[in-house]
Amino acid sequence: MKKIIFVLALLAMTIGISACNTVEGLGRDVEVAGEKIQNL
Predict the structure, then answer these.
(1) pTM of the entire predicted model
(2) Which stretches does DSSP call E strand in 1-40?
(3) Which of 19, 7, 2 lies closest to 28, judged by CA?
(4) 21: helix, coil or strand?
(5) What is the 3-state secondary structure (H, E, C) of 1-39?
(6) What value does the mean pLDDT take over residues 27-32?
(7) Separation between Cα atoms, residue 31 and residue 26, nearest integer Å
């Protein structure tokens, strides 16, 4: 189950990074993804 959640988190992070247009937005995306991974 944790593997599925981890894969979904990575997928969400990839989509977030590809959708972001600014360095500031990238920083926020990475921060949010890191928080989600910490919560596993």
Answers:
(1) 0.42
(2) none
(3) 19
(4) coil
(5) CHHHHHHHHHHHHHHHHHHCCCHHHHHHHHHHHHHHHHC
(6) 83
(7) 8
Which amino acid is residue 27, in one-letter code? G
* Contact present, 31 and 22 (Cβ < 8 Å): no
Tokens 């990839």 sit on residue: 14
34 Cβ contact partners less than 8 Å away, ≥ 6 residues apart: none
Q: What's the pLDDT at 18? A: 66
Read off the pLDDT of residues 1-26 as tens digits, 9 standing for 90 and up: 888 888 888 888 887 666 655 666 77
Residue 20: the pLDDT is 55
Q: How far is CA 39 from the centre of its chain?
A: 12
